[in-house]
Amino acid sequence: MAVPAKLTDTLETLEMVPDRSERIQLLIDIAGRFEEVPPRLARRPFAAEHQVPACESEAYVFTEPRPDGTLDFHFAVENPQGISAKAMAVILGDALSGAPSGQVAEVSQDIVYQVFGRELSMGKSMGLMSMVGMVAALAKKQAQAKGA
Amino acid sequence: MSEIESRGYVRPEVLVSTEWVANHLNDPGIRIIESNEDPLLYATGHVPGAVEVDWTRDLNDPLRRDYLGREGFEALMRRIGVTKDTTVVFYGDRNNWWATYAFWVFQLFGHDKAKIMDGGRIKWANEGRPLDRQTPSYPASDYKAAERDDQRIRAYRDQVLQHLEAKKPLVDVRSPDEYSGKKLHMPEYPNEGALRGGHIPGAASVPWAKAVNPDDGTFKNAEELRALYEGDAKIKPGDDVIVYCRIGERSSHTWFVLTHLLGFDKVRNYDGSWTEWGNLVGVPIER
User: Fold this and answer.
1) How far is CA B231 from CA B72, B171, B237, in A?
2) What is the pLDDT of residue B216?
3) Quick check: A64 and A74 in contact, CB under 8 A?
4) Residues of B with catalytic function
5) Do A53 and B55 make contact, defined as CB atoms within 8 angstroms?
6) Could you report the per-residue pLDDT of A68-81, keeping only the tens digit for each?
């Protein structure tokens, strides 16, 4: 299964910034573009079924179907200091919204390491990988519904 | 008497306020250290003069699942300009859980001139205190580290099994859903790094963050903490206690509370925690 084109572009852009401190600055800038899930889709308290397991930043994932059957992905991050979760949310939202659900369902959780590098704590990598995993799981559900 | 001293802790000197830190920013005998769960946070701005000790890069063995050894710790202390006489003051995100984790690792090497800034990073920021984006640099020290001592405050899985067989107290500091195993049973969702869910039989459930005031991230007073641990969890200061969570970070926070704020004599942190226990073949699990 092909990787969504925008995700490939994003990962290639990040690869062009191998210096750790420059990468951190880029990710901080990306996190600065974070926009919370619009109130028309979800309001606090967010339902537990949307919460990302293992994410200590209390991230939530929401979907909104497009007319063509693909999904827009929206996020909430309850930890005000959850900069990494916000950066990941922006990357996933930008790169995977509108992509074929079958492709999104196959996105590897290992992209976390391509984004943040290998020097992540076990807990942090598990939380960020769970964000990817939850997006993929929701896309899989959508792909299955469309195929049914 | 300071506000922290008035809370009734057994070792109040191990905690300092944000105001104390603000008054010691240029104290050559103090090194302020930020240690976070989030690897991007330090670069967004930190306490002026604070160095970063990153959990993964600075405190872990790059290959094995273990902490750095004597040489690595010595190199770290030299790089951040800490001598045997320097008092290190940790603070960080998430109510200081990573700060207490770093504090705990420093204790494995016996650097006991160590304190925690009460309330951590968010309290400092919420009080409108300055955050600096410049990374400081200090002259290298000639720190000579002791060998790491894993006996006193660290527990390995075989010791946990012996502890369990002896029916000694354990405290599970994860969330109630992790304790019950519920979180590992959501179909189609990522697991939490373990094949089995639940908890070590007999472990009391006291989520780590209960030790913290939710409003400002400061530690609860001694009376409130005693009600939590000695009352609800029924452990006593003379007990031999093992604490654990998923990978040993949140439980280092509880280790800090029990050891330093409540004066428990023997508390060990099982850093293998649930990511080890929940994957071990044949060990007992309770739900």
Assistant:
1) 41, 13, 12
2) 94
3) yes
4) 245
5) no
6) 999 999 999 999 88
A-chain CB neighbours of B186 within 8 Å are 53
Are B36 and B92 in contact by the 8 Å Cβ rule? The answer is yes
Query: Strand B170-172 to strand B240-244: parallel, antiparallel, or no bridges (unpaired)?
Result: parallel
For B122-158, the pLDDT digits (tens) are: 999 999 999 999 999 999 999 999 999 999 999 999 9
H helix or E strand, kind and range, residue A63:
strand A59-65
Cα angle A107-A112-A116, degrees, rounded to a multiple of 5 = 150
Token reading at B130 = 């300055």
d(CA B247, CA B4): 30
Give the separation between CA B101 and CA B243, rounded to whole angstroms.
Answer: 13
Burial classification of residue B91, based on how many CB atoms lie within 10 Å of its CB (0-12 exposed, 13-18 middle, 19 or more buried): buried
Give the nearest partner residue to B56 out of A53, A121, A130, using CB atoms: A121
Do you know the residue count of chain B?
Answer: 287
For chain B positions 132-151, those within 8 Å of chain A (CB to CB) are none
The answer to whether A131 and A77 are in contact (CB under 8 A) is no
Nearest CA-CA partner of A135 in A98, A99, A104: A104
Structure-token pair, residue B153: 């405050």
> What CA–CA distance (Å, rounded) separates B169 from A67?
57
At residue B187 the predicted structure's pLDDT band, cuts being 50, 70 and 90, is very low
Q: List B267's β-bridge partners, or say none.
A: B241
Q: How many angstroms separate the CA atoms of A32 and A29, rounded?
A: 5
Q: Can you tell me the distance from the alpha carbon of B63 to that of B150, in angstroms, rounded to the nearest whole number?
A: 19
Contacts of B58 in chain A (CB under 8 A): none
pTM of the predicted protein model: 0.91
Chain A nearest-CA distance from B115, in A, is: 22
pLDDT tens track for B6-27: 999 999 999 999 999 999 999 9
**Helix (H), strand (E) at residue B176:** helix B176-180
In chain A, how many H helices and how many E strands? 6, 2
CB contact under 8 A, A133 and B189: yes
What are the strands of the beta sheet with B240-244, ordered from one edge? B204-205, B170-172, B240-244, B266-269
pLDDT of residue B242: 98
* Residue B198 contacts residue B286 (beta carbons within 8 Å): yes
Pair of tokens at residue B231: 């009352």
Tell me which residue has tokens 């880029």. A26
How sure is the predictor about A19, in pLDDT bands with cuts at 50, 70 and 90? very high
Query: Do B219 and B257 meet the contact criterion of CB atoms below 8 Å apart?
Result: yes
B253 has pLDDT over 70:
yes
